[in-house]
Amino acid sequence: MSFNLKYAIEASVFWSPADRVVSCGYKKAADEKELYKFLKRIEGIEGVEIYYPYDFKDVKIIKKNILNEGIKVSAVGIGFFAEPKWQNGAITSYDKNIRSEAIYLSKKAIEAASELNTNVVIFWPAHDGYDYYFQTDYQKKWDMLVESLKDLASLNRNIKLAIEYKPREPRTHQIISTASKALKLCEDCGEPNIGVVMDIGHAFLAKENPAEEICYLMNKNRLFHLHSNDNFGDWDFDMVPGSVHFWEFIEAFFWLVKLGYEGWINFDICPFREDSLKSCNFSIKNTKRIVNFVKNLDSKLLDNFIKNNDAISSYDYLWNEIKMSC
Q1: What is the residue-wise DSSP string for 77-89?
Q2: What is the mean pLDDT of residues 47-54?
Q3: Which pLDDT score, from 0 to 100, does residue 303 have?
Q4: Domain match, 201 and 146 both
Q5: Is 120 a member of any domain?
Q6: Of the candidates 286, 215, 218, which has an alpha carbon nearest to the alpha carbon of residue 249?
């Protein structure tokens, strides 16, 4: 199988990771100069995902420090989540001033992506949700999302708006909570440059099988970007990929290869206590192991097992291949 995956690291890996217990963060955040030094020490990295305006305010500085070092910008994310003003929503805020600011930030991120030669903008509406029953107008917020996304998509047809869904956090419920809802939103918008980010960890939170959702999204040409991380299905701990869900990662990459995914895979991990550089290097190394393993499988044989609903033969074959590769 021919399959060339492009590997990127999210700049937030080098932010100061915090939680509700240690709100000051578990380690010192890397400054701009340190970030560029760290990126150059990650083996196999080709790109970095950055958030506007959290990771940069001046495109010229990014060009000088990242692009000139041979590292591409894999995607630009819209930063409307890390400040108190967004707490009741950004793109679906009932406050017209807040909503206008969220749309303005989104437009600036699209402009920055174009200038940085990337065609993917990450749209994660973190606070666009609710915490309690009888707290929100579900129809109104959905209509706001459709209206806003259609407007943003029309700004630059060469830029892909990639919707990152997530069931919960920071709200108890996010409006775009599953792959199917994200796909429904794409269809309601009716714009070819609106698609989906598959965050594998978010899929586990949503009790989804990533491989299954990948198939649905790719069938509709809506899988624009991938975030890779792992968790135990109870919280978004952003662990290194493949550390918990072994078989799920094998099957997900089997279908990515089979269906010919050509986008980036971005490691959206949060090493709270682990060494950040070591975690990045391991994430890439482990993913390359999975990709190489999957590429060497006899896909025709597996297809035959799948067509005959023969899961036992599939597992037996896979275990034998694992044994042979050790």
Answers
A1: EE--SSSGGGTT-
A2: 95
A3: 96
A4: yes
A5: yes
A6: 286
Tens-place pLDDT, residues 227-242: 999 999 999 999 999 9
Instruction: Say yes or no: 312 and 247 in one domain.
Output: no
Which one-letter DSSP state was computed for residue 50?
A: E
Q: Which residues pair with 72 in a beta bridge?
A: 47
Distances, alpha carbon 156 to alpha carbons 57, 104, 232, in Å = 20, 14, 38
- Do 219 and 314 lie in one domain? The reply is no
Q: List Cβ<8 Å contacts ≥24 apart for 211-219.
A: 211/248, 211/251, 211/252, 211/254, 211/255, 213/179, 213/180, 214/252, 214/255, 214/256, 214/259, 214/261, 215/255, 215/259, 216/179, 216/180, 216/183, 217/179, 217/183, 218/255, 218/259, 218/261
34 located within any domain:
yes
The structure's pTM equals 0.95
Tell me: do 306 and 291 sit in the same domain.
Answer: no
Boundaries of domain holding 319: 298-326
Both 103 and 13 in one domain: the answer is yes
Q: Is the pLDDT of residue 2 over 80?
A: no
In whole angstroms, give the CA distance from residue 249 to residue 231. Answer: 12
d(CA 109, CA 49): 12
Same domain, 286 and 188: yes
83 φψ region: left (φ > 0), alpha (ψ -120 to 50), beta (else): beta
> What are 93-146's pLDDT values in tens digits?
999 999 999 999 999 999 999 999 999 999 999 999 999 999 999 999 999 999
